[in-house]
């Protein structure tokens, strides 16, 4: 199931409802889903690309660990994202997360 900006709001709502109720175990989404969605118990978020700002990154990964739940976020981060490396490291440090040594080398 997927959500993106070219879908109507009605289609996006239907897809999201299917995901929320476990009828679709995987949701693929563009940034249209990075804010304003209330979905309980998301186990994993995978960011295929790093967003333009750390604030957007926080909103994306915020789909995991709602309330007392836990989750894991994976983000593909490449040398093309070099401009955001210091922001990402700051976010990870603030959240007391392990920082991959390769990230520190960028």
Automatic annotation (TrEMBL):
It comes from the Eukaryota. Residues 1-106 form the Helicase C-terminal domain. It holds the Pfam family Helicase_C. SMART domains: HELICc. This is Helicase C-terminal domain-containing protein.
